[in-house]
Automatic annotation (TrEMBL):
Record note on quaternary structure: Homodimer.
Keyword Oxidoreductase attributed: no
InterPro entries linked to this entry: Glycosyl_Trfase_fam3 (IPR000312), Glycosyl_Trfase_fam3_N_dom (IPR017459), Glycosyl_Trfase_fam3_N_dom_sf (IPR036320), Nuc_phospho_transferase (IPR035902), PYNP-like_C_sf (IPR036566), PYNP_C (IPR013102), Pyrmidine_PPas_bac/euk (IPR018090), Pyrmidine_PPase_CS (IPR017872)
Any GO MF annotation of the entry: 1,4-alpha-oligoglucan phosphorylase activity
GO biological process, one term: pyrimidine nucleoside metabolic process
Keywords: Coiled coil, Glycosyltransferase, Metal-binding, Potassium, Transferase
Coiled-coil ranges from the UniProt annotation: 279-306
Name of the featured protein: Pyrimidine-nucleoside phosphorylase
Residues annotated as domain Pyrimidine nucleoside phosphorylase C-terminal: 345-418
One cellular-component annotation, GO: cytosol
EC number(s) from the headed UniProt entry: 2.4.2.2
Length: 433
């Protein structure tokens, strides 16, 4: 087999065979195929697309390029949830203990944040003592005992994807549905879950800004998952404005605590119930979505979800007293309000710009090496569609430096107040199965 012929075949719009795809992925991962030939094939895929079979095959080949996590020692159907990334997306912190409280095993592999979106591990580390440095055996033991544990990403998961992503990043081939879908799904599948619930975001703060692109990506990922034998579904949700009210690590732990007591922001609670119901049904802990939702709601109000969160935190070294006394979480030295310059209705809170403002405060990493400040961030008091009076606080800035002029300027530029009547944006656009 020659890489030249594979490039030419795809360039001419033909579908590659399983053998050809495996030849490319194996050869590129082990260094036998040079970057220039891989780049040419990626560009051909960008223009010619891939069939459903090719997409499933390249995903499988990437999964098999490295370690695969074996979760078979965990009892029950393991359901994973993945979000394509957003600002103030606190859902994992809530969903993990919430669905675990219904007996769904949650074996979560998570990452750290980069750029304007936060990572679940960073957020959890705002709880004093909490750590994800546990062995695979401990991880499995904890899930069997408590139904929920979180571990950091293993070193050698999908090396083919790591290498290809790096190449796509410098060859203008990131933005391709078959390449994005196979990249995301390879990591999910290698992480070992039996079933996968995807939260595909759309809007200003999302990777897929347009609804149609988000739908195409969701459909592509669901098809790959089901083709490789993992029960997969997707929810398409709004990321035009940040999710919930809190953006920042300790602030989002606080928001998760509120939500786990049934006192959380409406949008965040609704998205958690939507995604959670799907997870519970896939895990066969309820027959219908309605039944699952009722059970989840019950556990938000009877203390079971909150207790599950406490057990989870302390089982990984965290100080669970923060749940009843959130003031023990890291606190910023300065709390500065952002008053509305005029009255009206909030028309826009551009999610990625708000994420960037939180990053400027130190809540997120500009580069992989940046240190983050767990205490800082933003708490919104108004969301799109809310009425506001001139001088009323739009949000509170939690900062560890006194001068927040630049952040304020960024925030004012990303929030629009209109004289017109504006509706709150749709939260859930679609469900793809
Ligand atoms: N996230 C991924 O993991 N892969 C992509 O290709 C794009 C976003
Ligand atoms: Ca939030």
């Amino acid at each position: 087999m020659r890489m030249y012929d594979i490039i030419e075949k795809k360039r001419n719009g033909q579908a590659l065979t399983t053998e050809e795809i495996n030849y490319f992925i194996d050869g590129y991962t082990n260094g036998n195929i040079p970057d220039y030939q891989a780049s040419a094939l990626l560009m051909a895929i960008y223009f010619q697309d891939m069939t459903d079979d090719e997409r499933a095959q390249i995903t499988k080949a990437m999964v098999e390029s490295g370690d695969q996590i074996d979760l078979s020692e965990i009892d029950g159907i393991k359901v994973d949830k993945h979000s394509t990334g957003g600002v103030g997306d606190t859902t994992t912190l809530i969903l993990a203990p919430l669905v675990a409280s219904l007996g769904v095993p949650v074996a979560k592999m998570s990452g750290r944040g980069l750029g304007h979106t936060g990572g679940t591990i960073d957020k959890l580390e705002a709880v004093p003592g909490f750590h994800v440095e546990i062995t695979n055996d401990e991880f499995i033991e904890l899930v069997n005992k408590n139904k929920v544990a979180v571990v950091g990403q293993s070193g050698n998961l999908t090396p083919a994807d790591k290498k290809l992503y790096g190449l796509r990043d410098v060859t203008a081939t990131v933005n391709s549905i078959p390449l994005i879908a196979s990249s995301i799904m390879s990591k999910k599948i290698a992480s070992g879950a039996d079933a996968i619930v995807l939260d595909v975001k759309t809007g200003a703060g999302a990777f897929m800004k347009e609804l149609n692109d988000a739908k195409a990506l969701a459909k592509a990922m669901v098809t790959i998952g089901n083709k490789v034998g993992r029960n997969t579904m997707a929810v398409i949700s709004d990321m035009s404005q940040p999710l919930g009210n809190a953006i920042g690590n300790a602030l989002e732990i606080n928001e998760a605590i509120d939500t786990l007591q049934g006192k959380g922001p409406k949008d965040l609670t609704e998205l958690c119930l939507t995604l959670g119901s799907q997870m519970v049904v896939l895990a066969e802990k309820a027959e219908t979505l309605e039944e699952a939702r009722a059970k989840l709601q019950e556990n938000l109000h009877n203390g079971k979800a909150l207790n599950q969160f406490k057990t989870f935190l302390s089982s990984q070294g965290g100080d669970a007293t923060v749940v009843d006394q959130p003031h023990l979480l890291p606190q910023a030295s300065f709390k500065v309000d952002l008053p509305a310059k005029k009255g009206g209705t909030v028309a826009e809170i551009i999610a990625d710009d708000i994420g960037t403002a939180a990053m400027m405060l130190g809540a997120g990493r500009a580069t992989k090496e940046s240190e983050i400040d767990l205490a800082v961030g933003l708490v919104l008091h108004k969301k799109i569609g809310d009425k506001v009076e001139a001088g009323e606080s739009l949000l509170t800035i939690h900062s560890n430096s006194e001068n927040v002029d630049e952040v304020k300027e960024k925030l004012y530029a990303s929030i629009t107040i209109s004289e017109e009547i504006i509706d709150a944006p749709t939260l859930i656009y679609d469900t793809v199965t």
